[in-house]
Each structure stands twice: as structure tokens, then as C-alpha cells.
Amino acid sequence: MRNSSRTWLYRANEKFAATVSAGSRVLDAGAGDQKYGHLFAHCDYESADFELVNKPYAKSTYVCDLAAIPVEDGRFDAIIFNQVMEHLPQPALVLNELGRVLKPGGTMICSAPLFYEEHERPYDFYRYTQFAWHFMMKEAGFTILNIDWLEGYFGTVAYQLETASKYLPRRSYRTVPGVLGWSAVPVLIFSRWLFHLLARFLYVLDERGKHTSSGFPKNYVVIVQKPAARPTAARS
Q1: Which of 143, 147, 157, 184 shows its CA 20 to 30 Å from the CA of 108?
Q2: pLDDT computed for residue 188 by the predictor
Q3: Residue 174: pLDDT band by 50, 70, 90 thresholds?
Q4: Which of these, 104, 90, 84, 96, lies nearest to 36 by C-alpha position?
Q5: Nearest to 140 by CA among 42, 226, 65, 216
Q6: Cα 90 to Cα 26: distance, rounded to the nearest angstrom
């Protein structure tokens, strides 16, 4: 099934890539299969990942814990940090490390879920509100340039309906005894089919326009900057 969150995340990374100057050194932190690496073809692209989850990985420049990236201070002009924060048992340590390897004045795109099922088990620890983003970035010494819903509420509802279409039980009589359990069977089967169709429709709506005046997002996307170093005062 299509997923409007992936569409919006691609657009966000495409927009961020356009702000990064040609020849800049970029780190993709927690890169996985490096699905956004080609957007930074105009840059010197490097990647880091611990590569412990049972999923496909592209070859990482650095196979490491993101709390201890084996590079010098201020190596990178920009950092990509997509859908990683929820998988970090100690996210503050990683944010501090990313701040260390980012140059003063450098920028970073981040995203993580507010609402999502457990995934990549057992490496799934947290969900993040906008207030958590503000607090954690301030603590790590970053300035937030922009924080926004990744997808609109249509995308969030589509995801809820998609998961319901997968997980609603067909044999409700096994958990709800008696006539009620048996009578629920056709309702639940029909609901699974209906929710699947509605999810597809709402994903399309979400890709066409982001509804943010009510509801809540599935993810937040955040652009931050490491403050530029203050010039040293001249000695008399």
C-alpha cells in the first residue's frame, strides 16, 4: 500500500538537500538502506549505522554506535537524521555526538514518529512530541529553524485504518464468547476490507494536500542548526 509519510519525507529531504551547497560534506546518520543518499549526489556523502537490525543495509562508511562516531570534531556541513531517534535508548547522547561532528553553522534534518506501532524490535524505545523536540534540541545546543508535521492528519488516519485492516481479528468468537462474538465476525471482516479502501483513499488525499488544522501528525520533521562559533575578541 502507498504511504504518504514516505512521500512527504522524501519531499522534506529533497528540499533540505537543495539548501546544502555543492561539495559540502554530509553525514547520513542511521542511514539504513540510504534511500535519500542520491539527493546529496552534489555533496561528499558519508553514512553511519550500527547495522544490527535484521533488514537490508547499504554499505556504511562507518559501522558504529551513533553516540561514538569515529571522526574528528566539526567534520560535516550537514547531517541527515531520519527516523532514527525512536530507536536510540539514549537519544541525548547521540544528539550531543551529532553536535560534535557538525560544523558551527551546519544544519541537520531530523524526523521521528509521534504515533506508530512498535517496529525493528527490540530497538524501539520512544515517541516524540513537538515539546520533546524543542527540549532535547535546546539541551543539545541546537537552534530549531523549523518544526512541522511531516504528513497531515489524513495520513495519520490512513495509517490507523491500514493497521486496523491488518490486525482486527476475523475470529472474534475466540476472544468474545457467545452470540456477540459470532455476530461480530462478518462486521469485522467487512470493516477490514472497508478500512483498507479508506486508507488508500486518505493516503492519496494526504499526498495532494497536508491537513494540519485539526488532529495530529504521525511524525514530526525538524530542521536545526548548530550555532556559529562566536568570533574571538581581539586583544589590545
Answers
A1: 157
A2: 92
A3: confident
A4: 84
A5: 226
A6: 23
Within 10 angstroms of residue 99's Cβ, the number of other Cβ atoms is 21
CA distance 224 to 146: 7
User: Are residues 115 and 176 located together in one domain of the fold?
Assistant: no
Would you say residue 233 lies in a domain? no
Pairing of strands 44-49, 25-29: parallel
> Tell me, what CATH number does 124's domain have?
3.40.50.150
pLDDT computed for residue 175 by the predictor: 84
Mean pLDDT of 10-31: 98
User: What does the pLDDT look like over 25-41, one tens digit per residue?
Assistant: 999 999 999 999 999 99
212: in domain: no
What pLDDT does residue 230 have? 63
**Does 231 fall in a domain?**
no
Say if residues 28 and 34 touch (Cβ distance below 8 Å): yes
Sequence-ordered alpha helix ranges (H) in 114-152: 130-139
- Other CB atoms within 10 Å distance of the CB of residue 66: 24
Contact status, residue 29 vs residue 81, Cβ threshold 8 Å: yes
Residues 162 and 140 placed together within one structural domain of the fold:
no
Share above pLDDT 90 across residues of the chain, in percent, rounded to a whole number = 87
Q: Are residues 200 and 136 in the same domain?
A: no
Number of domains into which the chain is organized:
2
Judge whether 232 lies within some domain: no
Give CA angle at 85 (108, 199), nearest 5°.
Answer: 100
Match 553516540 to its residue by C-alpha cell. Answer: 67
- Domain limits at 173? 155-206
